[in-house]
Amino acid sequence: MYVSYGMVMNRYNSAFYIQALDKYMKTGECAKTDSEPLYAYLLSVMNDAVIKIQVLNNDICACVFYDTMVQFINLNLNKEKYNLQKSQAEQEGMEHVMDWSIDRRRDGWQALLKQLGDAYQEFGFDHRFYRAQFGQEGKYADDKTWEKMIDDWKEAFHQKNQKQKEEEIELRKDSLEQRMRSNFKKIPEYLDKNKVEKDEFFQSWGLMNGIWNTFDFERIRKIVRIQKEFPEILKIANKMGRIAADDGQEQLSVAEGDIYKMEHASKCDILGITIGNDLNSLLPIELAHCADTELENLFVYKYLTGKLQNFRYKSEIMKPAKRLEVRPAALKGPMIVCLDTSGSMVGKPEKIAYSLMVKLLEIADRQRRDCFLIAFSVSVNPIDVRRERARLLDFFSTTACGDTDATRMLNTTFQLLLSNKDYMNADILWISDFKIPLSSPKLIRQMQEYRDASTRFYGLQIGIAENEWASFFDYIYQISYTPVRRY
Q1: CA 57 to CA 52: how far, in whole Å?
Q2: C-alpha distances in angstroms, 291 versus 209, 241, 267, 430?
Q3: What is the DSSP string of 412-429?
């Protein structure tokens, strides 16, 4: 039976490729081949023995590979979407041909077959067959013949698009592979030579759009290194990302589904090591897997199959039985950063803000969360930082200026929250010196309504000033610094 091109597109969408990549990055597993051109090419790259060794054994290469392939996938999907939009009229025509009247079929079948023969003969459309069919007495009115012709037309259209996709991939793949292999060699060598920490690389690379050059890398790295001077930046970033604290007391899931929550293993008289699913006697390595968002699914799998590594006790009969608590996990909304761009933020405050933005982008990429930047008085439209990295980097080159007025920023924030039903459970952060007059009672009331609906409001107050906003936020962090005097 014929499968429409729209159904094929629904399967091979962006999420499909990302899931395939994610599985490969975690397990090294992927299919051998596929008939869909872009997926077939992705599989050929993932099954390349040299690439697989580098990607699965070097987290720097893994990061480079992942970002490079995601960009290549999006580029090809956008091109495919553009081509389909150009042929929208033809696709609509396929659906409407069956509605032609008998008179229109009689007068129009020859012109239609000539058009289809010119466009699709090389893709298997047999216009001569249908010319012979419709040329018979009264046959042009036969619905079954028209239905078969339309099915063949759709199949030929699909084949033409498949070939077009193959040609697009062929044009770009050599350049892509050459750049990727070059990066696999040059980037680790540069990081090793210049003693660059991995976290510095991951954050800086996230803003480079997959294009490696040392000038931009060092420029962004300077912004990242501000985090060493102000450790509060990482605390705030982890709070926005809902990353569990070191003691494991807070655990929040990114995806919809269930949260598995347990108490730490108790200490007792240890006899040895065994396997099972006793959460009260886990080895430290299993606790680490549980706390790591990248390995959380592996932990749950091992629990369900009874393959967790447990301490074995002499006094097993004395141990109290405990169960894994399962409760629904709320989907995380986006991270929304509202940045004060008034003149008082010039200098160190804006550098702190930019460093925090880079860290939040790295967390958003890792968690597959949307992340937006809203400037108080400069930008009416939020910057979608995961999809507009170049725009974010350009923003870092601007100098803070403008008035401190939260009205426009609040209105923009509320519009953004209303734009998507999943955005209500958002984490919103204001970065400012908080020398901001209170907004209207209506906007303040709206803030409280969003907080009641699970939207979190945090603040980062840079500098010391009287803050009238504190009671309207879940928590406000503070960073003090010594301003540079200008003479």
Answers
A1: 8
A2: 30, 14, 19, 28
A3: HHHHHHHT-GGGTT-EEE
- What is the C-alpha separation between 2 and 112, in angstroms, rounded? 21
Nearest to 395 by CA among 353, 336, 457, 343: 353
* Tokens representing residue 321 in the block: 């039985």
Q: Considering only CA atoms, which of 413, 370, 362, 419 is closest in space to residue 254? A: 370
- Please give the biggest Cα pair distance in the chain: 98
Distance CA 75, CA 72 (A): 5
- Tell which residue, 39, 19, 124, 43, has the closest CA to residue 80: 39
Contact predicate 212/340, CB 8 Å? no
Q: Are strands 325-329 and 257-261 parallel, antiparallel or unpaired?
A: antiparallel
Burial class (CB in 10 A: 0-12, 13-18, 19+), 192: exposed
The pair of three-digit structure tokens given for residue 9, joined into one six-digit string: 């597109």
pTM metric for this prediction: 0.69
Residue 221 has pLDDT above 90, yes or no: yes
Question: Structure tokens of 190?
Answer: 């540069």
Structure tokens at 82: 């553009």
Query: pLDDT tens for residues 99-130?
Result: 999 999 999 999 999 999 999 999 999 999 99
* Whole-angstrom distance, CA of residue 130 vs CA of residue 243: 64
328, 418 contact by CB (below 8 A): no
Q: How many CB atoms lie within 10 A of CB 295?
A: 15
Cβ atoms within 10 Å of 420's Cβ, excluding its own: 12
User: How many of the other CB atoms lie within 10 Å of CB of 34?
Assistant: 16
